[in-house]
Amino acid sequence: MSILAADSNATLGAFGHDVFWLVLLKVLGVFVFLVVMTLFSIVFERKVVGRMQNRIGPNRTGPWGVLQSLADGIKLAFKEEIIPTLADKPVYWIAPVVSCVPAFLAFSVIPFGPEVSIFGHHTPLQLTDLPVGVLVIFACSSLGVYGIVLSGWASGSTYPLLGGLRSAAQMISYEVAMGLSMVMVFLYAGTMSTSGIVDYQRAHLWNALPLFVSFFIYLISMVGETNRAPFDLPEAESELVGGFHTEYSSMKFALFFLAEYINMVTVSALATTLFLGGWRAPVPLSLWHGANSGWWPMLWFTAKVILFIFGFVWLRGTLPRMRYDQFMHFGWKVLIPINLVWILAITTMRVLRDRGWNTVTVMLLVGLPILVIIALWATVDLRRTKRIEAELAAEDAAEQALGTTFPVPPMDLIVPPSPRLVSAGIRSPALSAGTGTEDEGPLHG
21, 75, 162, 312: which has the highest count of C-beta atoms within 10 A? Predict the structure, then answer.
């Protein structure tokens, strides 16, 4: 552990020595990267979903339609802004900013590449780093919840409020699973520094292989954290008319849109850093001596981020939206228990192995009982779910038999005459009970 701590301190020692203009240049570079990735992600999503649905997608604005997202952004900036009368104006204005700013700040500790030379100054391709760098990203993503809740409350409308509350419950639930999936990475790397975690994977396997359960849970949690399909319940159009940003238009809506896509890029970059070796080249390319030096690592890093964004788009184009109770059940009763059992199993196995136990013996004594417990728990939970669904189906069948499922008016209903027509001496058409014929008046003669 002392060797790992020394390596972490060595990587952290490269920060804090840049001149002022170089820091500003890095800030501008991170901002431009996020904006360009947002513009790319919007066109990329529309193109990929269009291809999956056997249609063309955007192809008019710019070459092959690549400027469509830029045109949409300009259009949103110049659209008329409509503010609800009952809105709380100060909170209504600041909510989109609260959602957008933490999304940018989270990228300040993401490593893009190794140390390079910029105008004669040697500096790492990373804005800054801290001994708890991953927790900075986690804290920034948590702050985004406040913007969504405040926007729903400040709109002065029922549906945005419901969407904001849904989003708060959803993001908090899946933040727990996401945080637990990072625990094993911290234990393996011996540091919470993002640059230290990337440096640890230089001499070891990428964390996605030995920590495949944590990696899989993180992939699911990052979809729920960003409110993307099939977990886009806060924006369920069929139920909430658009969710927490229903009453927003023009540039404020564009800020929410920007925050969503930047969060997609951020969680994808964090997954790349924690589990896929960060900016380091994959195995075939790493055989080249210069693959992990200079500016080439930025290309590998961007390619890995785009791979995760493709996963977001793929899920949106294939899976239907989950029911809210299924979604919360999956987060609290499936992901979190599996995460806790996984952490307990791996830490126990490592402690026993460090004390001289045989690996096979450790697997039999620890892994086998845990698999049995998980199998029993899954069986009990499956039976419980089937029993609840059977009870709900029986209730629906009973309601249908009694005719109480929906208040349908009788077909032989007699329509009463309108008082205004009666006062004018005109009889309105009415259905005769049981005959279905019309009582013709002067209007039908």
Answer: 312
pLDDT, one tens digit for every residue, the chain (445 residues): 434 444 455 567 778 778 899 999 999 999 999 999 999 999 999 999 999 989 888 888 888 888 999 999 899 888 888 888 888 889 999 999 998 898 899 999 999 989 888 888 888 999 989 899 999 998 888 888 888 889 989 988 888 888 888 888 888 888 889 999 999 999 889 899 999 999 999 888 899 988 888 999 999 999 988 888 888 877 766 666 778 888 898 899 999 989 989 999 999 999 999 999 999 998 888 888 888 888 999 999 999 999 999 999 999 888 888 877 788 888 888 889 889 888 888 888 878 877 877 766 766 677 777 777 777 877 887 888 788 888 878 877 776 766 655 566 666 666 677 676 667 666 555 444 444 444 444 434 3
**What does pTM read for this prediction?**
0.81
d(CA 399, CA 433): 27
Sign of the four-CA dihedral 277, 283, 289, 290 = negative
Helix (H/G/I), strand (E/B), else coil: 438: strand
Return d(Cα 262, Cα 140) in angstroms, integer. 12
Q: What angle do CA 86, 88, 94 make, to 5 degrees?
A: 140
179 in Cβ contact with 336 (< 8 Å): no
Please name the residue ranges forming H helices in 155-249. Answer: 158-189, 194-200, 212-225, 237-240
The tokens describing 420, both together, are 């205004």
Strand partners for 431? 438
Q: What is the DSSP string of 333-399?
A: IIIHHHHHHHHHHHHHHHHHHHTT--HHHHIIIIIHHHHHHHHHHHHHHHHHHHHHHHHHHHHHHHH
Per domain, the residue ranges of the chain are: 2-284+293-321, 323-408, 410-445
407 upstream amide cis, omega within 30 of 0: no
| Tokens standing for residue 19 | 């001149």
DSSP 321: P
H/E stretch holding 441: none
Distance linking the first and last C-alpha atoms of the chain: 98
- List the beta bridge partners of residue 113: 125
Tell me the C-alpha distance between 100 and 167, whole Å: 16
Q: How far apart are CA 171 and CA 164, in angstroms?
A: 10
189 contacts 4 by C-beta, under 8 angstroms: yes
Structure tokens belonging to residue 215: 């990696």
